Amino acid sequence: MKRLIVSAMLFATTASFGLAACSGETQESAELAAEGAARDAAANAEVAGEALQDGAVVAADKISEGAANLSNEIRESDNEEPGPAPITGDDLGPPPSQQ
């Protein structure tokens, strides 16, 4: 965003120096065009910033949703009866809170 604004300002500055030898009417038209480009660049930067912020909100919501799902899965698995260990097949016995 900042690069876009800086580029537009640099363009406006360069255009104003380049027009020093032009007629007054041409110079005024070019200055208006450069000012318009700078305003457009600022508006585009603001829109891009809003889009980034909206994306960050969506990402944070998805992370919260995933964390809630994981929490629920962990709670559900705490209520399961222990069975044989997946690799060794050994009986794991009751959970520590039930011993």
Order of H and E elements: HH
Overall 3D form: rod-shaped
User: In angstroms, what is the radius of gyration?
Assistant: 31 Å
Main sheet, how many strands, which sense, barrel?
A: none
Counting helices, strands and paired strands, the structural category is mainly alpha
Distance between the termini: 61 Å
The amount of helix comes to over 70%
Please report the total strand number as a whole number: 0
Keywords: Signal
Signal peptide: 1-20
Region (Disordered): 68-99
Protein name: 50S ribosomal protein L7/L12 domain protein
Task: Provide structural commentary.
With 99 residues, the chain is mostly helical. The chain has one domain. Helices cover 73% and strands 0% of the residues. The chain has two helices and no strands. Helix 1 (2-18) packs antiparallel against helix 2 (24-78).
In short:
The chain is built from 2 helices and no strands. The chain has helices at 2-18, 24-78.
Key features?
2 helices; 99 residues; rod-shaped; signal; single chain; 50S ribosomal protein L7/L12 domain protein; mainly alpha
SSE arrangement:
Blueprint: H1 2-18, H2 24-78
Helix pairs in contact: 1-2
